[in-house]
Amino acid sequence: MKQLLNRVYGWKKRIQRLLLPSVMVILASLLFATSASATGVYEIPTITSGEHTWVVDQAEVISRLNEGKISSTLENLANQTGNEVRIVTLRRLDYGETPESFTKALFEKWFPTKEAQANQTILMIDTVTNGAAIITGDKVKSLLPDETAVSVASETLTAPLRGGNKYNQAFLDASDRLVAVLSGEPDPGPPQIADNVQVEGTFKKAEETDKGNATAWVIGLLIAATIIPMATYYIYQVFQPSSNG
Fold it and tell me: Is residue 82 a part of any domain in this protein?
């Protein structure tokens, strides 16, 4: 019996030594994965005024065909009017960053002076939350007032995303509206949205699914790390009187 108790006690110690490091490793991995997938302004390649880079699709949600269409449309706009529009997609923002703060910082990185900023527009979205923002230069505001710019980011861009994350359609619609307004044409306005569309229906599914699976694993390991040693201790106590007798 003593031999059995010694084995049980040995198993308890081994389980504790094995499970605790595993839990710590998984927790560290989750934190690292979250931070590694986030994008900061410093990771975006530098673009200068007049450079023919119109789409920075780091989230890889725009097809090559549609990226080519959007780029061609925005280049024609720049050639004809001098107004330049850049579209940026990210998978995830750095902790504490918002779409507005990120876009503002990127605007100042790419175009550090008022003169360089004057005819510029950046439209940005992060695909984890579908949070969008738009920044415009001073001269652009005469054609694209802040109210219209916000409508482009919050209505035109996001409307196709509410029905199934249709990013290609979202950016085609947004670029078409921006080009019309910045070319001096009448504003076509935001798309008509039916009353039964649920605004937040698709915004957080990816994030919630990732976190949910990871949390389930961590909770399971923590429970195992608690219950298994308790069970072995209980067995030890049950057999203890026999060893004394």
Answer: yes
Domain containing 107 — which CATH number? 3.10.310.50
**What is the model's pLDDT at position 204?**
43
Residue 45 placed within a domain: yes
Structural domain boundaries enclosing 89: 41-182
Instruction: Answer yes or no: do 31 and 122 share one domain.
Output: no
Q: What is the pLDDT at residue 175? A: 98
Q: What pLDDT score was predicted for residue 50?
A: 77
What does the alpha-carbon distance between residue 212 and residue 149 come to, in Å, rounded to a whole number? 35
**Domain limit, last residue, from 150, 182, 214:** 182
Q: Angle at the Cα of 196 (from 195 to 199), degrees rounded to 5? A: 90
Q: Tell me if 200 is assigned to some domain.
A: no
Q: Is residue 163 part of a domain?
A: yes
CA-to-CA distance for 83 and 118, rounded, in angstroms?
9
What per-residue confidence (pLDDT) applies to 36? 46
List average pLDDT for each run of 10 residues in the chain, which is 245 residues long: 59 58 44 53 82 94 97 97 97 91 96 96 96 97 97 96 92 98 96 56 42 54 61 56 48
How many structural domains comprise the chain? 2
Tokens of 154: 């919050």
